[in-house]
Amino acid sequence: MEHRLPSQPRVRTFRRVRWIAFSLSLLFLAVGLASWLIAGALVASANQVVGEAPPDFPFVAAKIPSDSGSQIATWYTNSPDSVATVVLVHGIHGNRKKLLKRAKLLINEGYAVVLIDLQAHGESPGRLITLGHLERHDVQAAVEFARQKNPKHRVGVIGISLGGASAVLGSPLKVDAMVLESVFPTIEEAVGDRVQAKLGPLSCLISPLLLCQIQPRLGVSADRLRPIEHIGEVACPLLIASGDRDPHTTIAETRRLFAAASEPKQLVVFQGARHQDLLEQNPPLYENEVLTFLDQYLLAQPDPVSSARSE
Is 29 exposed, middle or buried, given 0-12, 13-18 or 19+ CB atoms closer than 10 A? Predict the structure, then answer.
């Protein structure tokens, strides 16, 4: 029986198919490895030495136990003349030192202030950043700390990005006013927006690979990291602020978050602002809107008629 060797065209076709398959395998491996490294960097602990408070700030250092399992590094003021306290919560990969300008603004207005490092940030121990899942306990602990330090004070919260999302996920909090700056409505959009800003069209491939790692890495599903589904539980006056050019939390997403919130509420749009420090971007607008909002609900004397009715 005669055996025929494969023709040259068939051999070339087979080799081409094998080369394509091998190349695709390498590509998928590279994309998978890249997504694993990117996700790891996103949730890696952001611990660092924060050091002492600046000498011109009247802060006292403390450690607050939190149900996140961490001991939350804290600075606080306890002025005898103040009648309200504001808790300041930083964004992802930040720490309490980044909030000193807001603290100074509030102290000059007559507020007591509590600044914290979220777990796995600054000097608060933690293995991983959990995108609000554990950090919500830190905000709750900070609010309780503020209440214990000054039981007669009204208490407000200013939360930036992850700090604001953590405040919403931890709601209802025992606070009298809340300010959310640049807060994402869902973790899916937060991841998608950031990947889109970096990789453009490739985001549709990378984003799902990042999101599918949330459960195995953090022990919580993505559907539990959606502030928009909890913002209705914020049981106090609410101000939401964001930049209209923010690629990480778009203005359309901010408006959706605002629409889902309960009254009384207020939306402040910082024209030209990206995902940045809104106080630095436009100090007059920040002071006029955010500070006025807090003054209204934390410093203003209650209406005697309303107080009598509530009793």
Answer: exposed
Domain residue limits, the chain: 44-186+225-300
The sign of the dihedral angle between the CA atoms of 8, 9, 14, 15 is: positive
Please state the separation of Cα 13 from the chain's center in Å: 53
pLDDT at 126: 97
Bridge partners for 66 per DSSP: none
Q: Spell out the long-range contacts of 49-56 with Cβ–Cβ below 8 A and sequence spacing 24 or more.
A: 49/123, 50/95, 50/96, 50/97, 50/117, 50/122, 50/123, 51/97, 54/100
Closest by Cα among 119, 253, 85, 71 to 180: 253
pLDDT tens for 218-276 read 999 999 999 999 999 999 999 999 999 999 999 999 999 999 999 999 999 999 999 99
CB distance 290 to 179 below 8 Å: yes
Please give the model's pTM, rounded to 2 decimal places. Answer: 0.87
- The CATH architecture to which 44-186+225-300 belongs is 3-Layer(aba) Sandwich (3.40)
Residues 6+ apart with CB under 8 A from 95: 46, 48, 50, 117, 121, 122, 123
| Residue range 275-306, pLDDT digits in tens | 999 999 999 999 999 999 999 999 986 554 33
Strand order in 60-65's β-sheet? 60-65, 71-76, 112-116, 84-89, 154-160, 177-181, 238-243, 265-270
Q: Which amino acid is at 90?
A: H
Contact 88, 122 (CB under 8 A): no
